[in-house]
Design goal:
This protein is α/β, with parallel strands linked by helices. About 45% of the residues lie in helices and about 20% in strands. It starts with a strand and ends with a helix.
């Protein structure tokens, strides 16, 4: 089967962002399918292609996957207007490709929501099966965050969301709340919940951090408004005030809020906060394995996040056997509690967050137990290869 796969923010493991589409595309190829990825140029991604763009496009084969990269450089530090224009430019070019290329099925994954537009057009004009993967609920999340307030824009986003679900033959949801959001509009829609997964790290030749001081808690990924990382700096400040100097917070990644976070840490003399540049996935895994004691799952206290997100970082942490500290309720918090692979604290409670880390510092045996449980959870339920098989079966069942 020939599959046309739209993902604007596609990356291989050499980039510093999620590799879900890369892994799933490779799994499709392994199962005998031909896959063409259509993507843009994401500032922390690496598509595997090099060389010059010709008329705004460059093409190549990356690990058996045909990749079409559009010269549409994106950064989440850009303003809303610029990002919106870029999203629609990607969709317009995607429509041209969907009308021109030979394929049997269109698969599109958000975000942005506009990534599904070529699939809608392919369904309407060429009667091709269309499967839509929903990573975040739009416009629910932007509305809840206050990122988008214009009622006209919100209405247009709501219409696009509804139309995307309507014309998709099947949907894939990355979290239970996303599935419920789709069902609220189309109760009979065929939906599979396939969360982000764990790439089980092979540690041959590497030295696992053996606790000790300082206890290092790391956050990885985008430093954006949604992450609410000021709450971690609040905990860091509390620890300084209590003269606790053997717990260190590390922030690995980039994003719009990072300069402000660094400035605050400098102003308040929070030398227990360290900011590091993004790392490729492989380099990140080695660093976390060798240097870090605890993975931080941090999001702003917005109810829409509780059951409506599936963060890559959580599955990376547990794949490495890192205990997790989480500061918001929801399905991941329930998972952490049920499998005893970390500690969940109430949102916005910097003191509770700091004191939880003190307990983790003072109880290495408990930490090791949580680490073992985290690794077991990754292997038993969220091994990427297992999820990829489910993905392939669900996707190709449409044809």
């Amino acid at each position: 089967m020939k599959i046309l796969y739209f993902h604007q923010h596609f990356s291989t493991p050499s980039g510093s962002t999620g590799t879900r589409s890369y892994e799933f595309a490779r799994s499709l190829v392994k199962n005998g399918h031909q896959v063409t990825i259509v993507c843009g140029s994401y500032w922390i991604a690496r598509t595997g292609l090099s060389g010059k763009f010709i008329k705004g496009i460059r093409k190549g084969i990356v690990d058996g996957v045909d990749v079409i990269e559009l010269e549409l450089p994106y950064s989440n530090a850009d303003g809303l207007l610029n990002r919106t224009i870029l999203f629609f430019r990607y969709s317009v070019i995607g429509i041209r490709i969907a009308l021109k290329y030979s394929y049997d099925l269109v698969f599109a994954t958000s975000t942005p929501l506009t990534a599904g537009i070529p699939g809608i057009i392919a369904k309407l004009t060429r009667k091709k099966p269309f499967v839509f993967e929903v990573r975040d609920l739009w416009p629910e999340l932007p509305r809840a965050m206050g990122v988008v307030r214009n009622p006209v824009i919100l209405k247009l986003m709501d219409i696009l969301e509804t139309v995307s679900y309507k014309y998709a033959d099947r949907c894939i949801a990355l979290a239970p709340g996303i599935s419920e959001g789709i069902k609220s509009k189309y109760p009979r829609k065929k939906i599979a919940i396939i969360p982000n997964g764990s790439d089980l790290f092979r540690s041959d030749g590497f030295v696992k951090k053996q606790g000790g001081e300082p206890l290092i808690a790391a956050f990885t990924g985008a430093h954006g408004q949604a992450n609410g990382l000021d709450s971690v700096l609040d905990a860091a400040k509390y620890l300084k005030e209590q003269n606790v100097n053997n717990i260190q917070f590390q922030f690995i990644g980039d994003g719009k809020q990072k300069p402000d976070l660094i400035k605050r840490a400098e102003t308040e003399k929070l030398d227990n906060c360290v900011f590091l540049s993004p790392l490729s996935k492989r380099a990140l895994f080695v660093y976390l394995y060798e240097k870090v004691d605890v993975g931080m799952m941090i999001l702003d206290n917005i109810p829409a996040f509780y059951n409506g997100t599936s963060p890559n970082k959580f599955f990376d942490y547990i794949s490495l056997g890192l205990p997790v500290i989480n500061n918001y309720p929801g399905w991941l918090a329930n998972l952490i509690t049920s499998y005893e692979c970390g500690i969940v604290v109430a949102p916005g409670n910097a003191v509770a967050f700091a004191e939880a880390l003190i307990r983790m510092r003072d109880n290495p045996e408990s930490n090791q137990s949580m680490a073992d449980n985290a690794r077991m959870l990754a292997k038993q339920k969220y091994d990427r290869s297992l999820l990829a098989d489910i993905f392939v079966d669900f996707l190709v069942a449409e044809c």
